[in-house]
Here is the input.
Amino acid sequence: MNEIRWMPILARKFLLYRALGVGLLTLFWIGPAAAQMLPHQLSGEAFTSPSAYREMPAGWGEDPIRYDEWARGAKIVATIGQDLYLAFQPLVQEYARRENVDVALKEGTCGIAAGMLKRRKADIGGFCCAPSASDRLPGLEFHTLGIGPVALLVHPENPLVNLSMAEARAIFQGQRRQWSSVDGSLPRAIQDLPIRVTTRLHCKARPGHWRLLLDNEELFSARTDEVKVTSDVIARIAAYKGSIGFETLWSVARYRNRGDAKPITLNGFDPRNLQALAQAKYPLYRVYNLTLWKDPNARNPMAAHLVKYLREQVELKHQELGLVPPSVLKANGWKFVGGELTGEP
Here is the structure.
């Protein structure tokens, strides 16, 4: 009698443990945070409030801008991110010749730009992301040049054409680990390949960019191949037919010597379609900003004139540059405070 009564209890325990095991496996493969989040919660914020500023020590704003030795003698010093440097170095050089002014331009990153501004070593900082609250220093203004697409990239021999945002998130979270689970119409040679996700998760504290796909690095698959430099993203995708990643179209063109990476459409929209980006139909993008000092101890009228010139050039050459300029963004309902883009339509 006792044996008959204990059997259902043991069975129930077995089912309970099996359910717990499946749950733990799910958490192991896609991460505890991702397992509990709804799709609309996976995306990070696109912008921070322009009213949030970083507090600095008393007297910090009284210091003038003091150039480092490499920029000694220059009338304008600017440090800008690598994407901006690639696109805007020729325009800065043209401006310097036309105006007969010495401009010291340094290629860096958002972090390098933020550091030089904090130390009051530059007139202009160039960012490839919308600023975080800690980037907003007292007396510093952000002026948006435009937004540019971030493209999903696959190997050129992968005939995949499109992913929905939900499919892309599932891939980058590690929920889909083989191409056969993504598109059954792909050639068998591609379907049989494991998916290798390659990323460069830069500017983790700043809003927008890759965080519009997944908010933070904890949401990405534990199997993600994270690299340190942009060129390696292109090289890794070009080296393996089962790869997928993301980068700007500027980077795809710049590092073509490292290999070919093929942009695909996202939610049915091509990253090269600037109209779709302007209408907020294409969902992944970077925000490009230049900074200027407005406080009298740091303000450089020549730097302000250069930023004005570059913004005018974006309006004139935005198709060539692959950017949506401020005038088009405003016409499509994007939100601005002064010269800074601060919100989506």
Remarks:
- Residues 2-30 form the longest helix (29 residues).
